[in-house]
Amino acid sequence: AQRVTQPEKLLSVFKGAPVELKCNYSYSGSPELFWYVQYSRQRLQLLLRHISRESIKGFTADLNKGETSFHLKKPFAQEEDSAMYYCALNGGAGNNRKLIWGLGTSLAVNP
Amino acid sequence: NAGVMQNPRHLVRRRGQEARLRCSPMKGHSHVYWYRQLPEEGLKFMVYLQKENIIDESGMPKERFSAEFPKEGPSILRIQQVVRGDSAAYFCASSPPWAGNTGELFFGEGSRLTVL
Question: Angle at Cα A18 formed by Cα A15 and Cα A20, nearest 5°?
Fold first, then answer.
């Protein structure tokens, strides 16, 4: 079955500390994975996609097929990183973005 | 570009009534998706539409739910004879039509349906 698991509902760190938001997936094919973020009173927006292997706002995420993971990391958290983070897996084909979502992790960065 | 626009933002219906949720995609986007978020659950895919076509409705409940994206006008998600279990946040997202797009979905702010 296609599934995305984010084991932490809430993660609280201090400013400047490293942060890792966990994401594990279950998918039989070659996965296409995303991290979306929702800041307070804003709409859901794309943060990262694994195929681009980019760093956005200091965040990176590496796809580990052996561990079926796509953890989101940042070496030094900032207060403005406080938000809800969702990991998503593309379960569709072609242009179909039939995303399968984790339940999300609420990140709180404390001063 | 105003972004994906959804209305109404909040809708209250009594059991048995109909709910209509509207979504205008971003300018130039011809692909529309509807997702539903039930209380304490994650987002769940409902339907993927292109102009005048339903491409994938595998996430739609078999009864009472329908979606359309006409040639002109917004996409509409219609729920007939609503029940309390339909109370949820309904999100619309759009993406551009060109092949090899980045895979990014652009989301609206959601429509929150409450069934009394």
Answer: 120
DSSP, res B84: G
Token pair for residue A52?
Answer: 């681009």
Contact A90 B108 (CB under 8 A): no
Q: Which residues of A touch B (CB under 8 A)?
A: 4, 32, 34, 43-46, 49, 51-52, 86, 90-92, 95-104
* Tokens found for residue B114: 């409450």
Tens digit of pLDDT for each residue in A48-81? 988 777 888 999 998 999 999 999 999 999 999 9
Whether A2 and A98 have beta carbons less than 8 Å apart is answered as no
Q: DSSP assignment, residue B73?
A: S
pLDDT in tens, B73-93: 999 999 999 999 999 999 999
Q: Please name the residues between 57 and 86 in chain B that touch chain A, using a CB distance below 8 Å.
A: 58-59
The nearest CA of chain B is from the CA of A67 a distance in Å of 23
How far apart are the C-alpha atoms of B93 and B79, rounded to whole Å? 18
Q: Where are the strands (E) in chain A, listed by range?
A: 3-5, 10-14, 19-21, 24-26, 33-38, 45-49, 60-61, 72-74, 83-90, 99-101, 105-110
d(CA B50, CA A39): 29
